[in-house]
Amino acid sequence: MSASVITVETRENASQNLIIQRSDSQLSLQGRIRVPGDKSISHRALMLGAIAEGETQIKGLLLGEDPCSTASCFQAMGAEISELNTELVRVKGIGLGNLQEPVDILNAGNSGTTIRLMLGLLASHAGRFFTVTGDTSLRSRPMSRVIKPLQQMGAEIWGRKGNSLAPLAVQGKSLKPIHYNSPIASAQVKSCILLAGLMTEGKTTVTEPSLSRDHSERMLRAFGADLVTDPATNSVTITGPTQLYGQTVIVPGDISSAAFWLVAGAIVPDSELVIENVGVNPTRIGILEALAMMGADIQQENLREVAGEPVADLRVRSSRLKSCTIAGDIIPRLIDEIPILAVAAVFAQGTTIIRDAAELRVKESDRIAVTAQQLNKMGAKVTELPDGMEITGGTPLVGANVDSYTDHRIAMSLAIAALNASGKTTIHRAEAAAVSYPEFFQSLAGIIK
Ligand code: S3P
After folding, report:
1. Which residues of the chain form CATH 3.65.10.10?
2. CA–CA distance, 87 with 216 (Å, rounded to integer)
3. 124, 179, 243, 335: most buried by Cβ count inside 10 Å?
4. Model-level pTM?
């Protein structure tokens, strides 16, 4: 008999409850998993493909809700994108400056990357008018972080609450280049400005306080942009106008999705998992560094380079974890993995401190508050800090009624916590997982032995 039962209950309003019922017998996780394509790279491949000249072929695209939002926005502006699938997506690019004025409101759904990166392109399409919105969560997330630098470039953008919240209206203009010193390490801010710089005559530079993920820099360069980075100052300069040319993009597995299995394999006794084909870009592997500090047994195997991104298979075996401190420059390299790292910390000996992560408060949910509240419902000892959490590990978890707050990463983190909790855990609004990992529940059921 299986040591645990996983049931998905669909409610009348299409919301789903994920129920994880632990029996008394021992449970272990075994097997090989292929995680879906990297979300950040999937967005960028669709966007650059749409505005490049010629055809872009995308292999391994993430079929989550977020990249679907990006595809539908760019289709509404004239790009021809074939049916989305993981095998091969063909994007017929329309060339620099040729995004058409959409006849309706663009909808970025739940996706901060879609709206923020796209704004750089919309703002620089002179003479065209755009409106853009998103779901309840996205309409409450701060847009001033991209609107302010775009306004410095001469952009005209209007929105709610002093031009800071979507829905937004954009009157495209010819922009002027700037050197922007970003107060936050954000790949969305950096990428937005670089995309605005594509069509802008002259040198547009972004400097960030510490290096955020560099997928835009890698892909823009591969598509032919004139782009120079200065690692000594965390700066990147694009010289515009610069035409892009369609390429083949092979999307690696998303390390942010692999993170759930890395933590699951580490905390569930007698487990061994191999997560295949995972992107291990140095700007994304903070999770591997943090878990190594906690004593996790994780090996990178078959390290290789695929279409400009490093890729490896990750083998994790369960081990005793200990607490650590996660703060400073590592934070942008693991920002999306903090909810699942908090789960690891709950099962580690000692008190783990996470700081310098105030950004978590403006993600798909307030991830500091929601992670602390939901894990505490299961008996964890998590204290909120203004910019992080203090987590005292070692107390056994007990199944409870918890809620994702419609945040995909919270839904999946709670499912992994539930694997190691006694009794029954019900995760409400678990369907949120489909934003980045539609097959998460099936993969979970497949590795439980
Ligand atoms: C992303 C950047 C990060 C990350 C998000 C994806 C990207 O956001 O949290 O999930 O693809 O550029 P910030 O740039 O706001 O840190």
Report:
1. 4-36+252-447, 39-250
2. 22
3. 124
4. 0.97
